[in-house]
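Observation: inputs received (chain + magnesium ion).
Thought: call the complex predictor directly.
Action: predict_structure
Action Input:
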Amino acid sequence: MAVLDAVAPQEATHLGVDLEHISKRFGDHTVLDDVSLHVDPGSVTAMIGPSGAGKSTFLRCINLLERPDSGIIRVDNHEIVTGRRIPARELTALRRTVGMVFQSFNLFPNMTVLRNVSFPQEKILGRSREEADARSLALLDRVGLKDKASSHPARCSGGQQQRIAIARALALSPSIMLFDEPTSALDPELGLEVLAVMRELAEEGMTMIVVTHEMSFARDVSDHLVVMADCHIIEQGDPHEIMTDPKEERTKRFLRAVL
Ligand code: ADP
Ligand code: MG
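Observation:
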């Protein structure tokens, strides 16, 4: 059963995103140096590369969890110029459009699973508790966790917690989903159940950008592969092509290490 079926009437359309000339420094340490990326609506972009390359920072810049020093974020017809004060209204609109799932789940430990999924809907979208809970239960059902609704996250496995985090993000009807190594903290078996949910989302046309070391996901699910190293995108294109015939020495080295 499709992940989004339960929520179709409220679903936003899936949008593309353009990042243009994004730069970011921490002090005098450059982390992103003029990085641009085009993402088609409904496409899956996998992002790979060595640790410290700037992948997480780049992902966080897309929804402005991290503020770029310069660059433009374009979603649909909407443009956010960074490097200046960003109006709260623009920030809120962007965060509603772009959902994010982290390596470490980031669930609220003191809330039940149901409240975890409902709370942001009430806070951010102003939904009533009844409305939010109904949507949460439908989404929990879709990720196979309806029976966990009244449990606390600590009683759930890592794979279950990550699926709850995905349901929580989907509950806000994002048009784009960002995943930062969503399975890295999980045993392979539990990672598979998370990847299955992500694969389903991709099949339903969600625009996704996924930082991952899961090369099989990158190869089988993504439409576009991006390789980051040393603050830059060093190579991008068709996933199969890059995996079988990488052009850059740095990409070759990285692929040798992970494949
Ligand atoms: P990746 O996700 O590819 O491993 P990151 O984006 O996490 O890379 O980090 C890129 C670089 O930026 C690293 O050198 C890291 O130490 C540095 N960095 C990340 N976040 C911060 C921060 N908040 N303050 C200072 N340095 C940071
Ligand atoms: Mg990272």
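Thought: report the result.
Final Answer: The pocket of adenosine-5'-diphosphate (ligand 1) is lined by residues 26, 31, 49, 51-57 (CB under 6 Å). The chain has a mean pLDDT of 94.
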